[in-house]
Structures are given as structure tokens and as C-alpha cells.
Amino acid sequence: MKTFVTGATGFIGASIVRELLRDGRDVRVLVRSASNLANLKGLDVEIWKGDLLDAAGLRAGLKGCDVLFHAAADYRLWTRNPDEMYRTNVGGTAAVLEAALENNISRVVYTSSVGTLGNPGNGIPGSEDTQVSLDDMVGPYKKSKFLAEREAEKFVSRGLPLVIVNPSTPVGPWDVKPTPTGKIIVDFLKRRMPAYLDTGLNLIDVQECARGHILAEQKGQVGRKYILGNANLSLRDIFRTLQEITGIPAPKVRLPYTPVLVAAWLNEGLSRISGREPLIPLAGVKMAAHHMYFDSGRAFRELGLQQTPVKGALERAVEWFRANGYA
């Protein structure tokens, strides 16, 4: 069984590839000519050079494949050119799913995000069925992923056997960029976290998240969404866990929300002029206004998603960042 993976050089995608190889699968990965291949080093995969917006190249790349994992996305909390993000996340998703349909792919797993889901915002976990609209999306990343998920649903109605997974906040090794959450860990290790906001996240081991993708392929219901998550933790508790792991003191000062929001607005304005990434991403601060807690019970019950204590995942993330010179 040949399996095609997009986003294989990224954080989640690289872990999906490793899980597939562990299962003895034959894997072909889509990479751009300018991609950093560090996450694929030493892996027995077939490299297919191409681009999400190259329809002919996608059709050729998927030829002879049985399964598609579409994990590629432009994941940034700030971009000077939102149109570029929409082209990748929305247009790229439509293009690769069109190619999958034309190649009669027998199973597709589309990697969305919990960012596309509704969240009550009062500490009550959101679910796959919590009501939400485009107006609830904060920033171009969430908006583009929300629209991309709608594209995926259109392909289900056209007969594509597709399952949607919504990862929460993965942590662990292979976070090369790093992701916004990985950057929080790196900044903590560099002792650049003197204070914290009153917010929260749902964490999951990136390896368990990757295994959840394969479980969705094998057991997921076509057209159904599955949250791949585990533990709902406040940011304060995440820092306390990192303190236990590293011995570095967790920040004790809680910042008031409004001054941080004002600073983010100012920072965003300066970034639009300079083109440099803001030190305080406005989208990130707006998201932090709510505890981003989610209920992954459906994936646990229907897919058999494994959920082990996330402290181990944070330990592996710390070890990997230190071993690779991030801190």
C-alpha cells in the first residue's frame, strides 16, 4: 500500500511519516524544491518534488497511491501577506483533494485544527459539534483553515472518502520551525518568560497525534471530524510542569490582558511597516483571551486514540530542543 503525505517536512507530518514507516508502509512525500529536509533525514521515503498549487504535478504524484494524508499548511500567527496563506491553505487543499479524487484514492485524512472549531471560552471544552462560524475565527491562519475545512467537506459530498482530524496543540520532537507552542517552550528554556497570561491549551504528544491520523484512516467515519487532543492545561500549569522537568523557575507574575492586547496592536502596526514578525502576535493574544480547551472523547471512543500523560511529551520536546541547539 503506497501512502502519499503532504507536509512531511513539518512537525506533525514528520511524525506521521515515522508512524507509517513503523507500520511497514511504503511512503511517498511531497516536498517543495526549497523545503528543509532535516525532518526526513535517514528515512526510507520516496521524495516527490512539487507544490500544492501545481495541479498536474499533484495528479502525477498521487498516481499509484492508495492513501493520502494531507498535513501541509502554512501555520503562522502573523503574515504580512494573508493572501499567500489563503492560497496555500485553501487553494492548496482544494488542489490536492481534486487530484486525489481524480486518482480514485481509497482513503484521505485531512489535517485541520481545533482552531476551526467552536469554543465556549469559559473553560468548558469545545467539541466537534460546538457551533462556530467564520466570524469567530481570529486571524488569517484560523480563517484560512476554517475555509479549507469547508473545501474538504465539499469533496466528501463529491464522493471522496475523506476523514477530518483536528489536532489540538502537539508537543514533542521534530518541531523544526518551531511552532508557536514550541517557541513558548524554547523561550522558557532561554529564561525569556518572566510572566504569563491567564489562558490555557489542550496538549497532546505529537507521536500520539500522528498515530491518531492513522487510526482515523483505519477506523474513522467518512465525513466525520475527530479532535486529536489530550490534556487541558492552563499556561501557568504548563510552565510549572516545565519547571519540574528543567529546574528553571516558572514565571510567577500574571499579566493583565488589556495592556498586553494594546501592546500587541502597536507591535502589529510596526510589523506591517517593517515586514518583521511581531514580538507579540496580535492573533496569539486574541486567542489567549479564552482557554482553548477541547474534548477529545470522540477520538478516544471511536478511534482508540492513546492518551498518556503529556509531561512525557514536554520532556521529549525539551530534550529535542536542547539537543538541536535551540536552547
Question: Could you list some keywords that capture this structure?
Answer:
11 helices, 43% helix, 16% strand, globular
Molecular structure report:
By secondary structure, the protein is of the alpha/beta class. The protein has a domain at 2-176 and 203-232 and 293-310: Rossmann fold (3-Layer(aba) Sandwich). The protein contains eleven helices and twelve strands. The strands form three sheets. The protein has a seven-stranded parallel beta sheet, with helices on both faces. Strand 5, helix 4 (139-157) and strand 6 (162-167) form a beta-alpha-beta unit. Helix 1 packs across helix 6 (206-219) and helix 3 (82-102) packs parallel to helix 4.
Rg over CA atoms: 19 Å
Residue windows where pLDDT falls under 50 for at least 5 positions: none
CATH superfamily of the domain at 2-176 and 203-232 and 293-310: NAD(P)-binding Rossmann-like Domain
Strand neighbour order, sheet with most strands: 3-2-1-4-5-6-10
Biggest beta sheet summary:
7 strands, parallel
In round numbers, the mean pLDDT is: 92
* CATH class label of the domain at 2-176 and 203-232 and 293-310: Alpha Beta
**Total number of helices:** 11
Helix content estimate: 40-55%
Give the overall shape. Answer: globular
- Report, as a whole number of angstroms, the end-to-end distance: 40 Å
N to C succession of SSEs: EHEEHEHEHEEHEEHEEHEHHHH
- Strand content bin: 15-25%
Label the structural class. Answer: alpha/beta
Would you report the number of β strands? 12
